[in-house]
Every structure is written in structure tokens, then in C-alpha cells.
Amino acid sequence: MSDLVYVSGHKNPDTDSVCAAISYSYLLNKTKKYNAVPVRLGEISRETEYILKRFNKDIPMLLKSVKQKVEDLDYDKVTVFSKELTLKTAWSLMKATNLKSAPVMDDQGKLLGLLSSTNIIQGYMDDWDSDILKKAHTPIENVVDTLAAKALYLNENLRRIQGTVHIVSMTTNGAMNYIEENDVAVIGGDRKEMIRHLADTKVGLIILTGQFDIDEEDLSYCRERGVSVISTPYNTFVTSQQIIQSIPVEYVMQKGGLTVFSTDDTVESLREVMSKTRYRSYPVVDLNGKVVGTISRYALINGDRKKIIQVDHNERGQAVDGIEEAEILEVIDHHRIADFQTVGPVYYRAEPLGCTCTIITKMFDEEGVDIPADIAGLMLGAIISDSLLFRSPTCTPYDKKTAYRLAKIAGVDPVEFGMDMFKAGTSLVGKSVEEIFNQDYKKFNIGDAKVGVAQVNTMDIEGFASYKKDMLAYMEKVCEENEFDFAMLLLTDVINATSEVFVAGDKPEYVEKAFNCHLVDSQANLPGVVSRKKQVVPAITNAIG
């Protein structure tokens, strides 16, 4: 995860934003500078989709946030206990790995509880009695393992301890008064008569201490009566201590009121919860609810921030959510420098060109990397889109020269390709007003004012008439939710170099002042206005003053 670098355009991505992310990722990977992955911050436009399909490129994955998550932290990913693990083994593992607690999982890997050293110690200090193995539903395998015993005979029906544990030190007659069927009898020494009596009583398990063995005749006698027999190397005193440690951890673990984190939880929420609780560590589960480890406060110190390279933007409001928690490595842009700041130094490249992909083409040349036909096609599409087929005032001679060079590499005619691209991208058929407005929408803070400006390139402005009423209602809602002074939608005719503007909000007069126009029913024609960056935002900035 720490080696991965996301190359991200802005929110509500346009063609340059997406194609720049893909193209620059290719260059970074080709030069082995970073392990770069292109991402998008929203749904792509029909125009962008057309270009990607035309050159057989996949849509970049959607990145919703770069906030640090639990999965980015150095949590303990291995120490997870099964519910039937013995206390003895659990205690040994916890001591060996210096753990104070560990999650316990069920047979499906889901979280069942939390075992801590406190649970174990409290268990020993509690008033445990000779029925503790029965109460804990202790598996016979636990007893054999804990006592390092040799199984002389195990009844296949004996799966869990079902009786009371006895240390047999009295006479046979004395034992008859309290040892019952299914009980566990711990015997030290050669007690042939007692073994026969216990077999007749049909105890569940006979434990021979001191590695004592019995002859085949007595063992057969026990086998015939279904009485299991094991032999441990421990003496009777140690056996009486060790057998309690065969209890499964499920019996002593904390089962309720657990504070659990998901790998998808943010570090911000993790820190908040940890500040209100005082556990040494917390269970971590994946998105399927399966236990993957534990996390402690110490992990908060060592988390790796996600690494980002921003293309075609620098303003925080247009960046991916959580950008303040990420490490920005580079910025490649052709816009004004706004509220951009970083904790450390970054590689920042901004040039007064019409398209980010024009800059990236220069970077291919500087690195001596050949541009493949598909990448050339993407960057050509980005330049044509941003320059409105070389009609935008933001388009420089260098942009146009670069586009024709890329067209030659891609094997297409730039004008013909551009017209096909715009036709595919500007169709409004089947779109909702929300989709139209948010296709290329940006927020701006200008002086004390907050505004929203959306722009849609279309070859069919007249066809928008049926959308107008619903669009203005939606824009009023956008203004209210974002506390905008006004919001405007530009329908830009890329062929005739004109825009139709629609305005909502409390201060439409700013738009009238900016463009020296008169809004009729919240609408006006703006001849020659095609660039949001060079014509719209500067004019509004001057009008707000």
C-alpha cells in the first residue's frame, strides 16, 4: 500500500482530468519513478467514455477518499485465537509475542470475543471448582494436549468432558461414595483394583500420572466398558494444576461490549474511539466481518499516508476527499494557483497552456519516452476537449501543434475525430438535470461570495428547452445546500463559439454585471464566451469586486 501512488484529476472529472491521469501514470510507470495508478473522483462524461472506448482503455477506478483507514496502519495481522484453544497455549503465545489481548474467532472466522491476560488471571482467582472442565465444555483433545499425554484408549463418543474432576487418593470403597459415571479420575501409582472399579462405574476418563502404564488386560477391561484412558508424564500434583489450563479460551474471554474496528474505518474515527476507551488493543475485522488482527494505540503513530499526484487541478475544493491527510508528491496543472498548500516540498509544474495533456506530452519528450498510439489518442482527445477543437481562447499555438503531432501518432484526423467526440459527448438525451449540471461543475470562493459554475458543451442548445424549468429548480436547491450566492450553467456551442447561460440564486445581478447582459427568465446568450477559466471566472471575479 505504501508504494502505491494515485494519480488523480479533479472532482466531476472532465476529459483532460481523466486522460491526464492515465497518460501521466503510464509515463511514471515507464520511467519506474512510481508505482502509479490512475483514478477518477466521479463519473466520467459521455465524451470521455467515447475517447476511452475509441482507444481501448479502461475507465480508471473510482477513488472516494484518501483518508487514512485502519487497513493503512501497521496493525497486528496474525495473532488470532480459535475458540477452543487451550488457556495454556494461549498464555504461552501471549507471553512469546508480548500480547496483552487477542481476538477469538468462531469456526467461520467471525469475531466471537476478546481474550486478555486479565481474563486468564481473573479466571484462576475466581472460585473455580472441580466441575470447571464440564462447565467449559472442554474438548478431550485439549486435555490430552495440555497434559502432554499419551492416549492409551479414547472412546470415539468422548468429545468433551462431561463430569467432575477427582484426584483419586482414597480406597476403592471410599471412591464409590462420590465418583460417578462420566467423571474424570486422576490416579497416581499402580491402582489395579481402582482402575477396575472406575471402569465399572463407567467414568468418562482415567488419567494415569507419572507416565504410569497399565497392562493390556486392564486396558481391555476399560475399552470394553467405553472408558477412555490416557497417561501423562506429570506427577499427580502438577497434573492437578495443568488440567485446568485445558479449558478453551471461549469460556474465559470477554464476549460482550467489545469495541471493534473495521479495516474500512477511518483513522479519524479510530482516534476518537480510542480517546474515550482505555483498552490496550482492539479487534480488527475485514468488510466480511472476519477477524484479521488487533490494533493498538501505537499503530496510530506509524500509519502510512496515501500518496497522491494531482493533475489538472490544485484547489483543495476540487481534490479528493481527505486530501489533507494524504502526501501530495506532485502537481501537474494549467490553472491558476489557488488555495494550494502542502506540509512538505513537492514537484509543482504549472504552465500557461490550454491543456494538462499538452504539458504531459512535453514531459514524455523530456524523459525520452515514446508515446504509444493509444496514449497519444487520449492526450489528443483531452487537448481537443479543453480547446473546443482549437476555438477556445485558452488554446495556444503550442497546444494546436501538439494535437496535430499526437493525431499523427494515434492515426486519426484531429478535426474529424474531434467532431465525432463532441457529437458523442454533447448529447443530452436520456440524462437527468442532476447529471447534466454535475457533468463539469466546480465551486469557487471569490471574495466573500460562493458560487457554482457548471459548463456543458453541446451541439443542440435548442434541445435543452424541455429541461430548463427542472434545471433551474435543481440549481436553486444547489444554491441552498451550498450557501451559494448564485449558480450558473453554461451551455456552450463549440462550433458557433457561443454560450447560453442559466442562473439561479439570490444574486443573479453579478452575472448581468459580469457579462453586461440582461437575464430574461433566468437566461441570457453570451456570444463568444466559451471558456470558464479565461472568460467566465475572471469576469465574475471583477463583478464581485
From TrEMBL:
The keyword Isomerase does not apply. Keywords: CBS domain, Hydrolase, Manganese, Metal-binding. SMART domains: CBS, DHHA2. It comes from the Bacteria. The keyword Cell membrane does not apply. It catalyses: diphosphate + H2O = 2 phosphate + H(+). Its EC number is 3.6.1.1. Residues 73-130, 253-311 form the CBS domain. GO terms for molecular function: inorganic diphosphate phosphatase activity; metal ion binding. Gene3D superfamilies: DHHA2 domain, HprK N-terminal domain-like, inorganic pyrophosphatase (n-terminal core). SUPFAM superfamilies: CBS-domain pair (SSF54631), DHH phosphoesterases (SSF64182), HprK N-terminal domain-like (SSF75138). It holds the Pfam family DRTGG. Its cofactor is Mn(2+). This is inorganic diphosphatase.
